[in-house]
Automatic annotation (TrEMBL):
It comes from Carnegiea gigantea. InterPro entries: Cupin_1, Germin, Germin_Mn-BS, RmlC-like_jellyroll, RmlC_Cupin_sf. Disulfide bonds join C32-C49. Coiled coil: none annotated. This is Germin-like protein. Belongs to the germin family. Mn(2+) binds at H112, H114, E119, H163. GO terms for cellular component: apoplast. It is found in: Secreted, Extracellular space, Apoplast. Residues 63-217 form the Cupin type-1 domain.
Amino acid sequence: MSACNTLAFIGILVLASYVAHATDPTQLQDFCVGINDPNGAVFVNGLFCKNPLEAKPEDFFFEGLNIPGSTINRVGANVTLVSAAQLPGLNTLGISIARIDFAPFGGLNPPHFHPRATEILTVIEGTLYVGFVTSNMPNDGNKFFERLLKPGDVFVFPQGLIHFQLNVGKTPAVAFAALSSQNPGVTTIANAVFGAKPPISVDVLSKAFQLDPVVVKHLQSLFWMSP
Ligand SMILES: *[C@@H]1O[C@H](CO)[C@@H](O)[C@H](O)[C@H]1NC(C)=O
């Protein structure tokens, strides 16, 4: 390649990378409905910023993540999330943290995904069986990745993929998760599908899940909670 061609080639690469980065801004909430009348609009995606001169150490501080959440509920788990809503200093920083407690013998953080974050999980106590499923792959369907975790083990759940954690031990389990958004969001699959309000049409769900409409109606009548 001549020097001139090489330069042109580098130029094209630089241009291509510039174009690739000229994307829309990352969402910081589920939606931000467009509005034509500027008088009724809020020009922000996330939270307003405090005057930096008025920021205090407390704005960057949260306490209590040493306290277990109660796991006396239907799934036997409890997620204590520290996002920008709980720790205002996280606004715009693209990170948050959660403590997850699991009851012995089957406490479950049920299948869910985070629309805006990858999650990296560290087990502190107990034994967790965890897994995630890929999006639809061209020839391979949905690939499942699973693993048994002990204290000190770290596992990553890529952004937007369905994942879960189950306590398979005889003792309570505790894990901490870091998430790559100030507001990761969570969609619990069963709740979103069978607990949507108003309910999704029985025709849609019975066909999609290959279930008798009676079973769909039963599932829709149940109480769906997320930990
Ligand atoms: C999680 O634990 C907290 C603190 O014990 C409790 O207030 C909350 O109701 C629990 N959430 C669930 C879903 O059980």
